[in-house]
Write a structure and sequence with these properties.
Blueprint: H1 7-19, H2 22-29, H3 33-47, E1 52-54, E2 59-61, H4 63-90, E3 95-101, H5 106-120, E4 124-130, H6 133-142, E5 147-152, E6 160-173, E7 184-185, E8 197-198, H7 203-211, E9 224-225, H8 228-236, E10 242-245, H9 246-250, E11 260-264, E12 269-276, H10 283-299
Helix pairs in contact: 1-2, 1-3, 1-4, 2-3, 5-10
């Protein structure tokens, strides 16, 4: 019978392809460098071709090695899914789950729902990674993440998406601003304001621009914040106005700042959704998780 590569050999190859370094690849695989080197040689023997060119200074993955490493990642991901499905078959919502979340959602939603999730699913261990949307979706596609919590609308391609909640944008200004204390703010009132935004890469930036009908135009100030907390402090200092998600307001991000909050006369929302690969064997678990998050968000 023809010899086939082992899962361990494929794991060694993907680690070497990602790091281009035998030592770092060995650390990723929790083996010695000599063990990893021997595993790569065995793999090359099975394949009948070289997957890496070695020198004293660097490692070059061959063209064939790159293609095999990409296919190996998918095989390893499917193997992990098989184990997860087996675990879920014994009991739903068990085992490990790697969940990505964007910075404008994670700190405000997860503290509200994670304790209840742990109580409801004690056999489920959730590992969290906070990152901006684009990089997080790349990690999801590569299999580094199982599912992601993102703000919609967002280009999700062929991912499966379940909506979790709607999050209204509120107008925020300092207490001395002419619009402070106003019950509702006409959207057209924002046309002449210095609208402070998050820096490029945060999807909330685009949502805020769309809400104000500003399209892709730049904010009218030179300041761009790297986080919602920084944005709040700049508004409190009277540097400009902004839009803040109610999710963050409910988490008391503006507490003690003296910031005035008002609704827009034509309310604008972003939607929070859970996304995962349609090919994932754990799709049932992710739908279950989205449902649980919806219930918990409604109860808090």
């Amino acid at each position: 019978m023809k010899r086939l590569p082992t899962m361990k050999q494929l794991e060694y190859l993907t680690a070497l392809s990602d790091t281009r370094h035998f030592g770092r690849a060995a650390e990723l695989c929790h083996v010695t460098q000599s063990t990893l080197s021997a595993g790569i040689r065995d793999l090359e023997s099975v394949l009948g071709t070289s997957v890496a060119e070695r020198s004293n200074r660097h490692v070059l993955i061959t063209r064939v090695g790159v293609e095999i490493a990409e296919r190996a990642k998918a095989l390893l991901r499917d193997a992990e899914d098989v184990m997860a499905v087996a675990s879920a078959g014994r009991s739903p919502m068990t085992g490990k789950m790697h969940l990505g979340v964007i910075p404008t959602i994670g700190p405000f939603l997860l503290p509200r729902v994670l304790p209840a999730l742990r109580e409801k699913f004690p056999e489920l261990t959730i590992y969290l990674r906070e990152e901006q949307t684009a990089r997080m979706l790349e990690r999801l596609d590569d299999g580094e993440l199982d599912a992601v919590l993102i703000a919609l609308p967002c280009e999700t391609g062929d991912l499966a998406v379940e909506e979790v909640l709607e999050d209204e944008f509120l107008f925020a200004c300092d207490r001395t601003h002419p619009l402070a204390g106003t019950g509702t703010i006409p959207l057209e009132s924002l046309a002449g304001e210095s609208l402070l935004l998050l820096e490029d890469g945060h999807c909330m930036r685009g949502h805020a621009l769309d809400a104000c009908s500003m399209g892709d135009r730049r904010a009218r100030t030179q300041f761009e914040a790297s986080s919602l907390h920084t944005l709040v402090q700049m508004v409190a200092a009277g540097i400009g106005v902004t839009l803040i998600p109610r999710l963050a307001v409910d988490a008391q991000i503006t507490q003690g700042t003296g910031i005035s909050l008002s609704r827009l006369d034509a309310p604008v929302f972003r939607r929070v959704g859970l996304a995962w690969r349609q090919t994932s064997l754990r799709s049932a678990d992710f739908r279950f998780l989205a449902h649980a998050l919806r219930e918990l968000a409604d109860l808090t």
